[in-house]
Amino acid sequence: MEQQSHIIIVSNRLPLILKKTEDGKIKVGKGAGGLVTAMAPILRNRNGTWIGWPGYVQEEDSDDKMLPAMQSAADGYSVKPVMLNSDEVKNYYEGFSNSIIWPLFHDFTSKCIFLPEYWTSYQRVNKKFAATTYQNADDLDFIWVHDYQLILVGSYLRKMHMRNSLGFFLHIPFPPIDTFARCPWRFELVSSMLEYDILGFHTIQDKRNFIRCVRKIIKDVQIDKNAESNERVSELRLGNRVVRFGVFPISIDFNEFYLKAWDSKVYKRVKKLRNIFPDTKVILGVDRLDYTKGIPEKLKAFQKFLTLFPMFHKKSHFIQLVVPNRREITAYADLKLKIEQLVGEINGVFGTNEWLPVQYMFRTLDRNELISLYRTCEIAFIAPLKDGMNLVAKEYCACNIDEKGVLILSEFAGAAQQLHQDAILVNPHDIEGMARAILRAFNMPSEEKNQRMRNLRENVKNKDVFWWLNSFLNAAIEKDLSSFPQVDEYFLVTRPVNSST
Residue range 426-432: average pLDDT? Predict the structure, then answer.
């Protein structure tokens, strides 16, 4: 990336959301999240462009009336929408992306629906994203494609004879070869990934799985024999091409959560919540509605905890927040029903007129409400069956400003690789083991809680979303990997001035 080059981000969703109001007008809203927070500064600095779908289903390819409103909502960089019609949303997004790749990459092969029309639509939409990228890129621009919905974009750009440097980051796990091999289009997917110049994964296990898949599926590939055990950036050779790949665990804007945790409105809400739960310890679960998150297993573990340790009746309270997600897919609707039945069963068996063991919330909370919950609870219970990273764990640590909380974390969350030393790790398939982990969290001495949480917070602070962004971009531009520096030593993007907290 030379000085005059720009950066183009390509993701399934834009950081802007188009919604139709009750009077039929189209309203533009801003998206939120760590990715937007991290990308916005570098896009502004580099006169960059973000390409993606604005979340609005439209049968026509474009609507010029929307573009000025969307562009004015973007903060100092260009946005280029890729519009999807209802058939594409059904077959590309709900179909191939979320009924094939999502379950496959999370080791839920029984939920995969390998329909050829899904593959056809996935190819067509990826080609549409590639065409928009091609039309908006200059020769020196660095193009960074994000996540499983757009794996093929790189290969289509190469077919359009684009010679730009291409990067790809996978935000979900990469599966082992025995799982990945079940996909009828495994060769096409891996071959497309090898069209990028640099690939990023969350964990060393994801990188290792990718290497083994490449060795099994692709012929005449040369990979360093130490690549599987190396957490740093490695290289493979395929013909006359070199592809870099490495471990870049994504994170959050620590400073943003830290500062909001001190907000007076948050403080008032926390005080109010603690008055609601006097003399009880609050356990918090925050998950999207997804079968990978292990929500039923957590509820069963809390049920087992109440069964095994009745002395904690009326002294414990489990708040489970479930954020609505993909309810149009049958598996998610069935999951919602299962969760509601378990909540009803636990409250029916153990609840009294004065005490309701489980509070279940099925809705989206705004940032301040969520941070208030993080600050209120003594224990965060995060136990996905499989997760690329899980940023809830890191958000909880950033908000735990009194350093009295305990993090219970699944060993199958990507975050466990980074936080394992100071979290209580659990196997989400071991219901009784998780129940005893709750007991351990309840009985942990104050000094141990303080030290563990202090370590967790320092870990998340030092490797925040800006660290993630720069580690990837530094690996993309560094010419000699043998002297590749620690990413903390220099930055392409400067953190906000108040991030020294």
Answer: 98
